[in-house]
What does this fold into?
Amino acid sequence: MSLADIKKQVEYYLSDQNLAQDELFHKTLTENGTLKIDLILKCNKIKKLNATPESIKEAIKDSTEVEIHDDAIKRKNNKPLPQLIQSQKKKPEQQQEQKPNVDNPYHNFDPLIFTVQAPEGVSVTWSQITEALMKQHNISAPYVRYGKTEGNFALSKPRTPQENIERLRQEGIKLGETQLQITLTDGEKLKEFWAHHGKHFEGIIKRAKEAFATGGVGKGGSKKDKKFQQQQKEIIFHNQKYRDISQLKNIFKTILGRSQDGVALKEPYHSMIVSLLNYHDKKEQKLNNLKHFTVGQHPEHKDTRCFIAVKEDGTQEDFSCLKCIKNLEASLA
It folds into this structure.
C-alpha cells in the first residue's frame, strides 16, 4: 500500500476530469458537498490499494486538491463542480422501439451460474437459499434450485458487479449455524448444469419474462399497468443496483426487522439510511446533529416499529422509511 498512490486515486475521483463523467460522485457532491470515505472505500481501485479510512486521511492531509471534512472528503476551498457530461441519448423513435427489451431484465438474459453446497447431511431448500441471498447480500436471484447435495442459482451477468461476485464467493451464505459455500460454476460443472437443468432454467426465465411483460404499457394500458411497470424498473441506490423499488422496500424492512431496539445501527446500514433520508421532506431536520440511527416503537402506534434518528444531545426523531422510498420512487417517474 502506497500513500502516494492512494492520494493520486482519491484526488482523481474528485477531479474535474472524473466528475464531468461520474454521475454518482457528481450527484453526491452536488447534494452533500462531500464524499463519505466509506463510499470511496467501495471503489475497486481503492480496494486494490488495501486502503483504510486512516490511510486515506494520512495520504491526503497535505493535498492541494482535496481535504478531510469529518469522515468525508471534499474539494479544496469548495471548488465548483464541473458540468456533468451526459451520455449521448438515442432518438425518441429508437427509444420507443427498443424500450420493451431494455426495461425487461429477462430479455436476452445472460446468466452467471453459481453452485451452492451445504455440509454433508444438512437439508436445504431453494426457498431458504432465496431468502438468505436477499437478507445477507441484498440479491434477488430469478432462478434458484437445490437437490440432495448441492444446488444452483443464477444472476444476470451484466447487472452483477464484480465486487458482488467476489463477496458471494468469499462469504457464502449462512442458514442458522450452517455455512453454505458458493462457487462460480464453470468448466465441466457448467456443462453438467446445462445438460441436467437447462430446460428447467429456460422455463423459469421464460415465465419470469412473461410475468414482467404483463406490466408493459401500450395502447389501452391501464393506470394499474403503468404503475406496475414503473415499480419493476431497475434502480441504483447508494451505489448498488436493485431489481426494482419493491426489492429496495424489502431491504429496509429486513434491516428494521432484524435490528434490536435501542442499539445503534452500524455500517453499511447507517450510510444507507443517510442516503434514504435525502428523500425525506424534512431531511435537514432529521440529519441535523445526527449521532446515529436505531429502531424502536413508534411513539403513537405502539404496535409499529420504525427507524429513529438519535441526535448528539440525546433527543430522538422517528421517521418512516416507506415515505422516503415513496419520494424516491416519485423522483424516478
